[in-house]
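Help! Submission page says 'invalid entity' but I think these are all valid:
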Amino acid sequence: MKVELEADKCVASGQCVVAAMDVFDQDDDGIAILLTEQVGDDQIDDVKEAVAVCPAAAIRLVGA
Amino acid sequence: MAETVAGPAHDVAGTAPEFPMPRASGCPFDPPPGLKELQEQGPLVKVRLWDGSEPWLVTRYAEQRAVLGDPRVSADTDRPGYPTKTSAEAGEGKLSFIMMDDPEHARLRRMVTAPFAIRKVEALRPAVQRIVDGLIDDMLSGPGPVDLVEAFALPVPSLVICELLGVPYDDHAMFQDNTRTMVRTTATPEERGAATREIAGYLAGQIARRLTDPKDDLLSGIAGRVAAGELTHGQATEMALLLLIAGHETTANMITLGTAALLEHPDQLALLRDTDDPRLVASAVEELLRYLHITHLGRRRAVTADMEIAGQVIRAGEGVIMVNEIGNRDPEVFEAPDRLDITRDARRHVAFGFGVHQCLGQPLARMELQVVYGTLYRRIPTLRLACALEDVKFKHDAFIYGIHELPVTW
């Protein structure tokens, strides 16, 4: 599956990094960045958690 | 009885229940029973405030997140319908970006997000551990009982935020006393104004000094924005004030409330005390944030355009209050929500709010609480209250719920 991140919406809470450290990181200002767009089956639960806890609704999980 | 979502908006005007509501005696860790009853009535219920206004209380988790994440609600306290907490608050100036809307909110907030990035916060963990260990050493080397607020809970976040901002901790008595006045709901507008002016004047001076003599701290970063013409000196001072006071009463009260709650739940305390698994400590922090909740007066917003939530139309110019305290006890989201269980996955709680205004300092608060909860009870395994729980004075009279004094011994 594919992760989409709208960095313009990000409020630098860092909760995506806590939930899925292999998929998300932060730039020097704390704004989220994607380490990978494609996530494996073993990462999907963590990314779903990141989607759920992101306060800015800036993350989406798309695709089959 | 309360007006519910099913009823017309105005036929029972003047009969809405008052908010805030009292807690049940003997249940200092649970939300007021009246709030739980409102939650059962519906997701949106009208309540009556100190000034007679009747905003909507949003009672359930899903609706609270929806409203807090909606751009049609405003955090601007000057907007029509904004539900103020007290007459003193109604007459106050802006506390920087937490009382602004995007895009100005986002512009200002992004100026100070850098030190709260996860990696930067993690880099501070050893320093926080030293602070916590040092304060515990001091407690253990002196006689008990001590007031855990003064000896430990307040100094931990105060030392950390002073270090981060670059404010000399030697001045802590001044800003701790004034912060206490600022968060007291019974303070008069004059008292709150004077307290705010004293800290603001102090911080304005600190920023002015850094304009000519910058250091490696957050205040110098803020001063740099003034030099670059991105902030006025007044805006910079408001921002520094927000960061300084936000770190104090919040984390300190989570430390004392968490300790008192754990002492009342010895099985949970034992789990935490006997573990060396940082994941269980982190899990305990999330559960205590969910279970306890210090922002008992709710997150407040003014609606700027008609919007429909849970089938109810909320009109532009109406106020909304999200009491995350009961959102975190919503049985639709958390199984057996009134049980303290540090092993549950509580990460989706809304203790830090939700939406673009979600607490900026949350990674720092989490890390500090992990160090505190992971250290205090292991280092002092015989820690106990030095008075009956009934004699502990809880902060019903403050914007931030917590404990005035917590006498402990060991």
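Support: the input was valid. A stray whitespace character was the problem, and the output above is from the cleaned input. DSSP finds two helices and four strands in chain A.
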